[in-house]
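User: Can you recover a sequence for this backbone? Please restate the input before giving your answer.

Assistant: Of course. Working from this structure:
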């Protein structure tokens, strides 16, 4: 099994973990990696670990490793994670060199995870650790490659967030050939095959919800109730969500580029009809001075359409530009607990 870090990296760390997790254990139990991203979650680390350990202890048929990705936290998160990893040998901490965002942190965790199954879960206890058992059970019952955890209600999200999320799923799935399932966060179980497929995707800007959907595989869903955040605040401000949304759409659909052709064609057709009508009217009634307001409105309207079109073009050109630089998705400062046997 080859685990790639930074995608084109040949660092000693990459080589060091180029070892199957199974080779480091003498057990024949299936191995499960729990991958969780942490960004300034210092109030949560211990509670998360206590809840997780409790649930993992109830699953003696599996060997677990816990891959905690510290996404450049500026508070005590990293120290607390290292403290825990000194106590519990199953914990490995991937320290990123700065804050790269949740998508990159998840990619890092997936690249480092060595288990036969990988479960991604948020650190804020919004996805209850109890889900781990349910995900594994669902996998055993169905032999699926991916088990999704689907939120049955978003009661704890604000009304505005629910409405925008719902509108976003509709717009994204209308525009994009890759449909993302509604109300599915990043909490899911994947087999090693799926994880390798994801790690092998070359793009550096990673909209994980879309990539998860793009790789496909046999998928089943289980339902769960999403809890409120254990403490602290969501790291996704409205501005960040807006950028995230635009990134999702432009990563998976080119319709926003093509749509301008249709809008242009419709506009040209309407203008042509108007020109014909205008010629006839002039022939029959002679020249008059048409309304100034309608002229101004149409100029402004079409001017704005052109600006929006340019903006959309710019978004895609920007993405091509960023991808063409081939910068890695994330940089690892250090992997703590790397060579440990479990
Ligand atoms: N997160 C991260 N990097 C970031 C932002 C968030 O690793 O730049 C982590 C965060 O610590 C948490 C998970 O991603 O474990 C989900 O974040 P959050 O709870 O803020 O998002 P929400 O649940 O509101 O979508
Ligand atoms: Mg959360």
């Amino acid at each position: 099994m080859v685990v790639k870090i930074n995608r084109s990296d040949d660092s000693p760390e990459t080589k060091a973990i180029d070892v199957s997790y199974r080779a480091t254990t003498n057990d024949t139990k299936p191995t499960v990696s729990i991958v969780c991203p942490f960004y300034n979650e210092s109030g949560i680390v211990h509670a998360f670990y206590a809840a997780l350990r409790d649930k993992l202890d109830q699953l003696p048929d599996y060997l677990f490793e816990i891959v905690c990705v510290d996404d450049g936290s500026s508070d005590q998160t990293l120290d607390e994670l290292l403290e825990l990893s000194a106590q519990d040998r199953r914990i490995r901490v991937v320290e990123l060199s700065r804050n790269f965002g949740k998508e990159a942190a998840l990619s890092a965790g997936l690249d480092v995870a060595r288990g036969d199954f990988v479960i991604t879960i948020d650190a804020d206890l919004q996805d209850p650790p109890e889900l781990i058992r349910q995900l594994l059970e669902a996998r055993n019952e169905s032999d699926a490659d991916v088990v999704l955890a689907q939120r049955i209600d978003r009661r704890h999200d604000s009304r505005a967030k629910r409405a925008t999320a719902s509108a976003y799923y509709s717009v994204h799935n209308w525009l994009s050939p890759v449909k993302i399932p509604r109300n599915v966060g990043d909490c899911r179980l994947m087999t090693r095959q799926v994880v390798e497929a994801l790690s092998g995707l070359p793009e550096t800007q990673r909209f994980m919800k879309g990539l998860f959907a793009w790789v496909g595989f046999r998928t089943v869903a289980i339902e769960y109730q999403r809890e409120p955040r254990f403490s602290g605040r969501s790291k996704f401000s409205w501005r960040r969500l807006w950028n995230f949304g635009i990134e999702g759409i432009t990563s998976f659909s080119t319709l926003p580029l093509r749509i301008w052709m249709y809008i242009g064609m419709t506009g040209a057709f309407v203008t042509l009809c108007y020109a014909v009508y205008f010629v006839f009217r002039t022939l029959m009634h002679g020249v008059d001075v048409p309304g100034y307001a309608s002229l101004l409105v149409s100029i402004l309207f079409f001017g704005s359409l052109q600006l929006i079109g340019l903006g959309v073009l710019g978004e895609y050109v920007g993405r091509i530009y960023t991808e063409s630089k081939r910068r890695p998705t994330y940089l690892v400062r250090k992997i703590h607990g790397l060579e440990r046997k479990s």
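That completes the design. The two ends are 18 Å apart (CA to CA).
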